[in-house]
Design goal:
alpha+beta; Prim-pol fold; Rossmann fold; 9-stranded mixed β-sheet; 6-stranded antiparallel β-sheet
């Protein structure tokens, strides 16, 4: 199959590889071909291939959440014609030329913004496409005329590398966002005040769902109510989350019958749950639940993460939380769908968590502003709280508030008198977690420990400690087992609602686990005991480390971050990550090390060996 044979499919996959969610639109038109329109936009290559195999000539649409596309209609539009300086500032962005002579300029929204699309409010015949919107992209065509990219201004970088709008444009877009839904007298009609917005929109959505409205219909209605009545409007992602959460519930049969006049007289609902025919089942549940981690986990599902003690499970899942919170790939392999994350930790103190989070974020190249309002942490260290005693805590969480909830470590959430080796006990706990996931409309990740002894000969579902129900009750069972190479593990997974997952090898590069394709995942470490060789000689001891020796071995005159220096010292006997930090601090105090700010917004800090002055 060549690109010439399937140009639309190859173009759609190209945009998806650049992190832009796409979906198909009708040939020669802008009308979506998917049932839920832009809500089904994805970067999943398998889904994209299926769409364009079914509709090979379909137009390609990009969902513009997180972007702001300036849509300048008409050939010869005079906007900014008298201000060439501002016009030049727009020319740094990728530029699409539209079939009717217009232009689309592509920017990313600055941090903390949640702009919505506008029509003619920026200037006459100048629209914006942002959260809740979409645009067609080349090689799509409308009425026989194609979209195409301006030479040397193609969309060729991921969203996070797009330029932000110039300052003057940000100020105008902020002003438009602040006046959404405001009447001419300056007051939103039938306003919903701050503090009641989420609850009121949820109630409105519930009323719509009871009479049978779909998720797409509820989302569209709540968007309008949010824009017209909420003061100030909620971010679009929260509105979408509310609509998705409400849509999980079944419509009320009586309400649907009355509104749609199914019967001439009222009929009550059945006294007991009634089995569905296959026709009814297929009509009600036409699609799987939305993904949180592509290939591993969906909304409402649970996932065990299991590994031996001190393997670095918490570091692994902390990176997972940041990937979901920012919508980035996890382990450079698994796509995620952006959503807020709650970490409930009963092993680490809050101070330890506060120390770890910036380390992981720095190594993932994630800015702290990107996770400041999307990752939430609750430390329960020393509070002796089990999963059942936290009922009031979970009831205080609004359904749909989080995409992912992490319980670390799971064994500490078990009541004191319960035995993890008892099937009934474990099934009861997992049933409780399933009920929480269903009510909250989120996924749960449970960090659990492996059984003792060798893991290499066990099935994936037998690695976790405790009764067998701990593996059967969850939707995804993800395990880390030691590789024969020191400092490496093999990640394997058993999944329920996805295709099988191929094993992969990870290498520990503090503070991250990173894929290492050079290692064979079939080479699991065998834990067979070895006979000690008789010898009268003591094994040679490594020379003791001093600050001077450390500086000479691991620092140069070129500054490096603390994380990079720790990577250099990985697996070196006598150099723990804490000792590396101590040596850096002592070396700087003793005048052996210089601290320098490295290029980039907000840091980071680098350390370099101080150049020795040469006396004449």
């Amino acid at each position: 199959m060549t690109r010439a044979d399937h140009p639309m499919l190859h173009a759609a996959l190209w945009y998806a590889e650049l992190s832009y969610p796409v979906f198909p639109c009708a040939l020669g038109r802008k009308a979506p071909l998917t049932e839920h329109g832009l809500l089904e936009a994805t970067t999943d290559a398998e889904q994209i291939t299926a769409w364009w195999t079914q509709y090979p000539d379909a137009n390609i649409a990009i969902r513009t959440d997180g972007l702001v596309v300036i849509d300048i209609d008409g050939d010869g539009n005079a906007w900014l014609a008298d201000d060439p300086a501002k016009l030049a500032e727009l020319n740094v962005a990728p530029l699409s030329l539209t079939p009717r002579g217009g232009r689309h300029c592509y920017f990313r929204q600055p941090g903390g913004r949640a702009w919505r699309s506008t029509a003619g409010r920026l200037a006459p015949h100048v629209d914006t496409r942002a959260n809740g919107g979409y645009v067609l992209v080349a090689p799509s065509a409308v009425e026989g005329k194609p979209y195409h990219w301006q030479d040397e201004r193609e969309l060729s970088v991921p969203q996070q590398r797009l330029p932000e709008p110039p300052t003057w444009l940000v100020e105008q877009l902020d002003a438009l966002a602040a006046t959404n839904g405001v009447a001419s007298n300056g007051t939103p009609a039938n306003a919903i005040p701050e503090g009641q917005r989420n609850e009121t929109l949820a109630r409105l959505g519930g009323a719509m769902r009871r009479v049978g409205m779909s998720q797409a219909e509820i989302f569209a209605a709540l968007q309008q109510a949010n824009a017209d009545r909420c003061a100030p409007p909620l971010p679009l992602r929260e509105v979408e989350r509310t609509a998705a959460s409400i849509a999980r519930y079944e419509p009320d049969a009586v309400s649907v019958a009355v509104v749609e006049n199914h019967w001439a007289q009222d009929r009550g609902p059945p006294a007991q749950p009634t089995p569905l025919s296959v026709r009814e089942l297929m009509a009600v549940h036409r699609t799987l639940r939305p993904a949180v981690i592509q290939g591993l986990l969906r909304r409402g599902e649970t996932m065990n993460v299991i590994a031996p003690s001190k393997t670095g499970k918490s570091w692994l899942v902390l990176a997972l939380a940041m990937a979901v919170a920012t919508g980035r790939k996890w382990l450079d392999t698994f796509d995620t769908v952006a959503g807020d994350v709650l970490i409930i930790d009963n092993e680490l103190h809050a101070e330890t968590l506060a120390h770890r989070i910036p380390q992981v974020a720095e190594c993932l190249h994630i800015g702290m502003n990107d996770i400041a309002e999307t990752v939430y942490v609750q430390s329960l260290r020393g509070q002796l709280r089990d999963i059942f005693s936290m009922r009031q805590f979970f009831e205080s969480i609004e359904p749909g508030r989080y995409a992912l909830v992490v319980l670390d470590a799971f064994y500490r959430f078990m009541p004191r008198d319960m035995d993890e080796n008892d099937n009934g006990t474990m099934a009861n706990i997992y049933n409780h977690v399933d009920a929480l996931a269903e009510r909250l409309g989120c996924s749960f990740v449970l960090i659990h420990h492996a059984t003792k002894g060798s893991q290499s000969a066990k099935a994936v579902t037998d690695v976790g400690a405790g009764a067998g129900s701990q593996s059967r009750a969850t939707d995804t069972h993800l395990v880390l087992r030691p590789h024969e190479e020191p400092g490496a593990v093999v990640l394997e997974a058993a999944v329920r609602s996805w295709p099988p997952v191929e094993p992969m090898t990870l290498r520990w590069l503090f503070p991250l686990w990173k894929p290492d394709p050079e290692l064979d995942p079939a080479l699991l470490r065998s834990e067979k005991p070895k006979r000690a060789k008789a010898s009268s000689k003591e094994p040679p001891q490594p020379p003791a480390w001093s600050v001077e020796r450390f500086v000479e071995a691991f620092l140069s005159e070129q500054p490096a971050t603390k994380a990079e220096i720790r990577e250099r010292a990985t697996d070196v006997p006598g150099l723990s990550w804490r000792r590396v930090s101590d040596f850096l601090e002592i070396g700087e105090r003793n005048g052996l090390i210089d601290r320098a700010k490295l290029p980039g917004q907000g840091g980071p800090v680098g350390y370099a060996r101080r150049q020795q002055e040469v006396s004449e």
